[in-house]
Amino acid sequence: MRALIDPEVSVKNYARIGWLKVVEYSEPLLNAAKVMVENKIRHVPIVSNKKLIGMLSVKDVIDKLNALNMPDLLKSEVGKLGSGKVIASKPDEPLWLALKVMKEADVGALPIVNEEGEVIGIFTERDVVTQIAPEIEWDKSVKEVGLENPKTVELGTPILDVISLMNEMKIRHVPVVDSSGAVKGMVTALDVIGYALENDRYKKGIRIFEDAVDTIMKQPVFVREDATLNEALNVLANSNYDYVLIVGEDLKLKEILTDRDVLRITADLMEKLHG
């Protein structure tokens, strides 16, 4: 295994400094959800007077989401729904340490703050997937890293059941399969949130999450089970999604590899190189 990344380099080298989306504590969740869906991002810092006070993730939204509470939920102050646990990094934090903090806290984003506590950037697991992990010559197959036997739902499953599964298992990706187990689509937490924003039938008392999952599933991104990890990372880095499915014969699902998995193995390697 050979890495072209210096674990001691500042995290700001890979973070998005200047470009970032934030929401004020008192803003309605509707605004934050729109920011996530429109920008295809899964983490939004919560600020008050420019100071970081929390984070909102798609998991936070899904955890509170169902057809019955939609109108009230979307009006709620975003600060009351996001995580108040503030985990952040200074711009000059060593890369290996920033990754270690994210892995141990099991978070997918690390706001970058200045000396005044103001958010000036953000470093996410997507940055790891697109900028760091591809620069490593991994001596692993994708099967060694992916999660075996991921939870799935069949075609026709109500969206509400998918939400329940996401909350119960604390996941944000659910493959959709047919009765034979072949992959037919994929649903992410961001897809569910986007569907809720685009479909205002809930305002008329219609339970939109009783619609079938087929309504919102997207074409799956996948690699074959004999792919190398670097091949899978190339697919993952060049897609708009934070997962890649690992399939066998007849598209039968074997495993799933997510941005979070890549974050963990990269954090382990960078810490090892740091010594």
From TrEMBL:
The record ties this protein, via Gene3D superfamilies, to: CBS-domain
Q: Name one GO molecular function term.
A: kinase activity
One Pfam family it belongs to: CBS
Is Kinase among this UniProt entry's keywords?
Answer: yes
Top-level taxon of origin:
Archaea
- Matches recorded under SMART domains: CBS (SM00116)
Domain (CBS) ranges: 14-73, 81-140, 146-204, 216-273
Q: InterPro entries of this UniProt entry? A: CBS_dom, CBS_dom_sf, Diverse_CBS-Domain
Q: Which UniProt keywords apply?
A: CBS domain, Kinase, Transferase
According to UniProt, the name of this protein is Histidine kinase
